[in-house]
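re: ur question from earlier - yeah i can do the single chain one, its not a big deal. heres the input i used so u can compare w yours
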Amino acid sequence: MPSTQKLDTHHKALTINLDASTFGSFAEIGAGQEVARWFLLVGGASGTVAKTISAYDKEVSDDLYGSGSRYVSKQRLEAMLDNEWNQLLTQLDKTRGAQTRFFCFIDTVSARNFAGTNDSHGWIGLRFQSQPGGAPNDILLHINMRDPSNVLQQQAIGILGVNLIYAAFYEAQIKESFLEGLAQDVVAERIEIDYVNLRGPAFESWDRRALLVQLVRDGLAEAVFFPTKGSTVPPTEVLYKKAIVLAPGYFSHTDPVHSQVHLRLLGSGIQELQGDLGEKKSAPVGFFCLTVAPLTPEEPIPEIPDLLRRIDSLLAAGGDVLLFRKHDSSRKPPYAGACTLRRRSFPGDSSV
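and the output i got, formated as tokens:
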């Protein structure tokens, strides 16, 4: 069992390597093999690493994980996780399963290209067992990379990957310590996490929606998205190259009457923008916008239950919600691409 003291990346990787109960594989595409590299460099890698792979060629990748999805996407990440996990268990479960907590670390990343013309983002996943022979647990992340060079982005991915594996095995009991460990030395300044999905028995008691709010409150994300229908996705997937109407407000009145008024006002803003763009353009999309910042500097930061109460009232009315870290949601979000932006105010409700 590792020490309770805060460990750097080197010692986290070494701790895992020296833990005879953990063993797994690494499949990394798009930012080198920076996560596996840590375990190979610190010593004792034979105690942890079953395999490392980077299927960079598209035909090779399609042969391994199937075709038909974008290479940097949740669908590709899921396919990689399933393939590598099934292969790991097929090869090793009979000989090592009784005493081993298996894991698969996966990432598919679009790191900064030579010309600097791409969006630097990626999907990261970990499937792991909390105890030998146990049911698998999944952690899925979407990240946006902020470092200005490919080399720095690769380094940041390496640190985040080690943090993730260490946190899953040693810090998954408490949400706060899990997020703190995940963020150590890299998140906020170098990497933004704007989506997290947890699955499996290790996370049965966790409130996934509260975790999304916590990402923003802790400064790990600039914004997260809450949809009225379907599963949560990163804000990038609903904002990129869209005509959007952002409707910021405090939304303290959570009764159905106020929520319906808010929805009608948002709808009128969407219609107004559609009129400006012309009928040939695709229909704009609208979002209610809240912030985790207090309404005034004298007030305390809103608590998570209060934020979720306001979010739920807007979702119940039929409006999608973006939760921002800062007040200034009126400016174009940095990940929205070439979008058209319109801001809609709410008379009678404290705008943020």
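Residues 235-343 form one domain. not sure if urs matches, ping me
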